[in-house]
């Protein structure tokens, strides 16, 4: 069961990271980045959420069935 949850988290995290990259490359994000020097909030939320899910997924695979 832990391995399945880890796979889902890992897959969802990778999708969020890719989606965040695509959002950060959009025209409106590029314009905001030009004037403010920072990416849009949506892109940052997607990066952070994707990173957390990837980390959770990897931990589930490494510690499969072991109690922490």
Q: Layout of SSEs?
A:
Blueprint: H1 2-24, H2 27-36, H3 41-62
Short summary of the structure?
Helix content is 81%, strand content 0%. With 68 residues, it is an all-alpha fold. Helix 1 (2-24) packs antiparallel against helix 3 (41-62).
- Secondary-structure-derived class: mainly alpha
Q: How widely separated are the two ends?
A: 16 Å
Number of helices: 3
Shape: elongated
Q: Topology as H/E string?
A: HHH
Q: How many structural domains can be distinguished in the coordinates?
A: 1
Radius of gyration: 15 Å
The oligomerization state is single chain
Characterization of the model:
The protein is mostly helical. The chain has one domain. Helices cover 81% and strands 0% of the residues. α1 packs antiparallel against α3. The mean pLDDT is 88.
Which tags fit this structure?
68 residues, mainly alpha
